Amino acid sequence: MTGAGILEARPRVVGESVPRREAREKVTGRARYTGDVAPPRLAYVAVVPAEITYGRVTAVHPAAALARSGVLAVIHGGDCPRLHRTGDADLAVFQSPSVTYRGQFVAAVVAESPQIAREAARAVRVDYAVGPHRLDLDTAGAGLHRPPGHEPFFPTDCSHGDVEGALALAPVRVEAVYTTPPYHHHALEPHGTVAYWHDGALTVHDTTQGPSGTRDVLAHLFGIRRDRVRVLARHVGGGFGSKAAPKAQLALAAVAALVVDRPVKTVLTREQLSVIAGYRTPTVQRIRLGAEADGRLLAVSHVSFEQTSLTSDHTEYAAAPTRTMYAAPNRETKHWRVRLHVPSPTWMRAPGECPGMFALESAMDELAVACGVDPVELRLRNDTATDPHSGLPFSSRNLAACLRLGAERFGWAERDRLRAERGDGRRLVGMGVAASTVPQYRFASRASVRTDSRGRCAVRLAAVDIGTGARTALAQIAADALGVGLDRVTVEIGDSAYPSASWAGRSSGTTSWGTAVVRACEALRAEIGRRGGIVPDEGLEAAADTLEELAPPRAHSQHAFGAQFAQVEVDTATREIRVSRVLGVFGVGRVINPMTVRAQLVGGMTMGVSMALCEEGVIDPVYGHFHTRDLATYHIATFADVPRIEAVWIDEEDFHTSPMGAKGVGEIGIVGTAAAVANAVHHATGLRLRGLPLSVRRLVDAESAVAGGAVTDGGAVVGDGV
User: Is 667 designated active site?
Assistant: First the structure.
């Protein structure tokens, strides 16, 4: 049979708005998530959390729980299979008596029903030896250390020129401290795992952003070959980074299934997510800027402090985006970290860039005010054609175009007039702007594509769709690469049995997986060409691995850029801050599917508004648990808080980042949004809030500080040239 059109030119579908392929399944409830999986003889796991913040378990008393009808086992440190050590100590469930944070798993009950398991877990008594604990992120206290660097993307520190000398001589200087609190992911789908063993092989259904990586971790943890582990994640209900790395409930489910020799399910409660699923570390960031009177930067210093747990090496690298953002001959960035008796932090949407750019873009706004320069113009004056840190040219950098287009669409030139006209005595109106950036990655991935003699094509790879529309975008990429209609392509993902793929994170899914799909499709077209356009009755299959392609060092600095504009209204009686309008303009390469890209960008900006106005993790200073451990206490933006949000993008292609010309879009929307809102609040009120969230309390405190002649929220020092 002939290639049935694979070697023919067809209209391209990349760039077309295509509805998500799984949309009907999701809205009708037919999509099956991990929590929906229920194999025969399923048992359920409930955990016993540590009731101390630091110390060790001296004894576990399971008798009362085991006496209950329906209880199958109580697992604890004295009665648990031994696991191999991995790089993540949090996965070593029940392998050590040490307790390093409140809520850590110290025992678990396996039972016939979730209700029986939960009730029995309450009956397990645990004895502890309690030690002193430390919970405060003290930037001048003991224990501060430099975190390990991760070259080439995240060296711990960097320095160029003479920062101190340039700051001392700068006509205009701004110095301020900015703070961000802990942030929790709270994805709609909680973390959960269904696990079962058969003939020494392990199968798990898991809420994971990376089936291949999760498979590899499990194989090492239990000392079995990778081909003896299968990880399935057909649908994942959001992750935002919290499902990128395996979590303790995964290891626990696999252990429990081994102990009781039947399938088991464990799903974290909403309260447990704040402990086990990770969170974004709080930050304290000191920014110092030195500039000419016209706002051109002479020196930039960005020092960030953060926390981690006793068991994790996670680092936020909040100062890293400052290395790339603006030109300045003298620059330094530093990171400091302290280990505390807290749960382990983890990646959260745009790790590093999100809190780091809040500080930098707030400081840039302060510099614009100090110099008397328009904030958009200030950023344009400090734009750069080459990466200030690496010296490499950018693969594409259209920050200036984003700023100019955004200013035009948002009516930026009229912001002072609008502030005066729309303020009615009860309301103060202001506009703010902030720039955004996210580094671009391509990770090694594999893909296969098979065609039958009728031209129907099936793409397979162990990618995962966490709500981003990956199935649809990959189908569009494959259809164009093969030259067939979109209706001829199916995409199968979410199974570690498929060719190994990288994780869904760091805005890398489309670029990493799409590259593997393109290369596999090219290989298939070449094979059909070698056969004279003939496809045998049994079909043809080709595969690709991008590992070798990614080996050479980069010749370009690869980043996405954008600009966010926000308008706020502040009630002078209640001090309530409302965001009335947000616009984001982005340079994200070639857009594969405008429908899903717009959803990603609007979703990111919505999270940014929530970060600005609502979200704040609060840890109890005595007992070490998060007060804000459910959605009743951890506030997120609701429909009433979310304004009219518009997301647009400029026309660009970046073939250095991917063969499709595309960049990642999952994270760029959240970066810069909170700073734009904070800058708008300053424009409206004249008050500078340097800590998030922008709450009524902070606004009242700022008013009181100004009335008392004091500076607000960390203070700012401005040079004599102002």
Answer: yes
